[in-house]
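Run log, item B.
One chain of 465 residues. Sequence copied directly from the ordering sheet:
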Amino acid sequence: LESTKICSLLTVWTFLLFIQEGFALAQKAKDEGAGPKVLKAPLRPLHCGNWVRNADGGSFSSPNYPNTYPPNKECLYVLEALPRQRIELLFDQSFYIEASFECRFDHIEVRDGPFSFSPLINRFCGAASPGLVVSSGRFMWIRFYSDDELEGIGFQVRYSFTADPEFHLHIGGLLNPIPDCQFELSGADGLIRSSQVEEENKVKADQAVDCIWTIRAPLNHRIYLRFLEYQMENSNECKKNFVAVYDGSNAIEDLKAKFCSTVANDIMLDTSVGVVRMWADETSRLSRFRMLFTSFADPPCSGGAFFCHSNMCINTSLVCNGIQNCVFPWDESSCKEKRSKGLFHHITKTHGTVICVSTGVVLLLLILSILVQVKQPRKKVLIRKNNLFHRGDFQEVFDPPHYELFTLRDKEMSADLGELSEELQSLQAIRRSSSGSRCIHEHHCGSQASVNSVKASKENLTSLE
């Protein structure tokens, strides 16, 4: 009996212990439910919203407004105004979104630009209406998000576009009109240049630039865009200048990338239509860019296309053309060096004909001149000279050397030198007078007196020497 009582007591005690633990767990669960709300991974949200470009303005609201909005909802709105305009949002006073610290749960998020990473204006939740919210540019990004519990009536907002006061107005308060500036490109590849605006006089020098280049690739092709040159005059100021790339159309929902800083990346589009847009206000006219587009197909390559080793098949005409059309330069890496053609490669058929005819005429004239010289008779002319040895030719041979006497004007010259000069002059006169006489050849003519005088003169000359 005692053992039976003990077993009964143990059974009752165990039952009471389980009941106590159950109450403890229930109380704990109740306490946790009254505590702070834990952020849970929401279910896959259902998307809603649209991209608005209505120039007259409009309105939009959370789903089911003014009734309670549904859970697990995400709505995205992107507003685009015309150039030189701003966007104004005016929220109704009937506004309630689940309140939380820093609006971590349900909220509406507004950003100053067209992207999810554009500068944040603010996040709104709770019962206080945000009132008026103004953008600094012509784009605004708005997202409404709700989690899986505690919903409210939501919001309703009216939007309108107003003139940007930072743009300078002309006389009469009218802005410069934006001219129609569009270009169309197609083919295997091509260049998009901002310099086309000035070359084709699309925009005047004092006007803002808002130009669009539309690229159309062949059927079943996509487009690869690579920047060759990029420079924004007012860097990091997208309101003043930017280059935007759209994939499929120029609508804001097809915006692929927007560049306004100091760096621009290459872009691979998913469709066969690409749109490049450049905006530069009157103070950013020095902004410029140059971009290469290449049409390509996805592998496997067919029709003799070139495989770029980066999921690209390009036209074979682009291989070894001196331009990198692939993402990596595979199309230019195996090219042989092109040597400049020599002179003979540049000679055309017409040039060859002219050269041959001219050479033939010159050779014919040369042969004719040679034949004429051969057939012409030669005339021998005998010139007789009566006086074979001219007397005048030997005159200088037999004449004695001609001496020229220099007058010595020195006052200290001796008298002997003066007498010597006179005797040399008399001797020269004798020799000249005797050179024309035949007595030089005959040796036996003339008087004895002359001979004696000559001898005497020679002896005097010898004694002087």
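Observations after the first pass:
- The mean pLDDT is 75.
- The domain at 58-163 is CATH 2.60.120.290 (Jelly Rolls).
Flagged for discussion on Thursday.
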